[in-house]
Amino acid sequence: MHHGSLSLPTARKLQYLRQRIKEAGIPPSKLDENLIIGTWNIREFGKSPRRDDAIHLIAEIMGQFDVLAITELRDNLEDLERVRKLLGPYYKVVFSDYRNDAAGFQERIAYLYDKRAVEFTGLAAEADPMRVKGIDGEYQQVSPDWWRSPYMASFRAGNFDFVMLTAHIRWSGGVRARAKALKQLADWVEERRSSEFLVDRDFIVLGDFNIPSRRSSAYKAITSGSLQIPPALLSVQGTNLTEKATYDQILHSPTRYERFTGKGGVIRFYKESHKELYPDLSLGKFKNQLSDHLPLWLEVDTWIDDELLEKVLLQDE
């Protein structure tokens, strides 16, 4: 991290934030052994310039991850670049384009990653809704539209090759509409995982699904196939500031269930009140500086060398 010259108020805010991060219990990242992945909806990131102290706080949070999926990134990337300068030269980013119409809110999805821990392996594409052949012989898009196309990218960490697919599901329309979109997304993952020429079958699906709770039809829809929530995240009650709604999720279609280490959670930069960080702001303005969502994190085991060695040795028995 390269915070550089800091004002005293910003230094105090960073000290407070680091305590919140410490309480999250995120294990240290170890090259070729584990991977800290995450997803964070950063409220309208890029719509209006953040204050300098907010950029430092956002960078401090982002620096906890080896690869982080970012939703609600806007068309203007200047604030993201301000953060990257603080993170240093090892942090790279790959991001989607945005739709110009008002329905998409000019949003992008991005993957910020530390190239020392994870390698981008070349695939970066939007996921398009499936199409079916109509009675006129023309192929038509299956309803409902995702509004904002999910975005995927392929990575490698050690011997672990995986595809991350991130979505920001439309809020309006109610839970029933979200459930339809999430079922479509789950079906898309199942269809793609069965493809002969898939880059990798380890899918990590994450982002802001606007799921109110795991009892809702929206959650049942996204987990209707092979996608499952890692046990480490079952104890997470919510990812909004009050932790009452499970809007954000990390799900996995594993080729090895042992990929889950049992460690995961949220970073509580907000704890009952925002006044510890921004006593001069209203809650609404605080959300516009940091966010109205908490970052969700998960540790993944990337060390399989022992398993590969055992397979070779068993062939000799």
Automatic annotation (TrEMBL):
Q: Has the keyword Lipid biosynthesis been applied to this entry?
A: no
Signal peptide as annotated in the record? none
Where is the Endonuclease/exonuclease/phosphatase domain positioned along the sequence?
38-257
- Tell me which domain of life the UniProt entry assigns to the organism this sequence originates from: Bacteria
Q: Which GO terms describe its molecular function?
A: endonuclease activity
Q: Which SUPFAM superfamilies match?
A: DNase I-like
* Pfam families cross-referenced by the UniProt entry: Exo_endo_phos
- What keywords sit in the KW lines? Endonuclease, Hydrolase, Nuclease
Q: Does the keyword Hydrolase apply?
A: yes
Q: InterPro entries from the entry?
A: Endo/exonu/phosph_ase_sf, Endo/exonuclease/phosphatase
Quote the protein name from its UniProt record: Endonuclease/exonuclease/phosphatase family protein
Write down the species: Parendozoicomonas callyspongiae
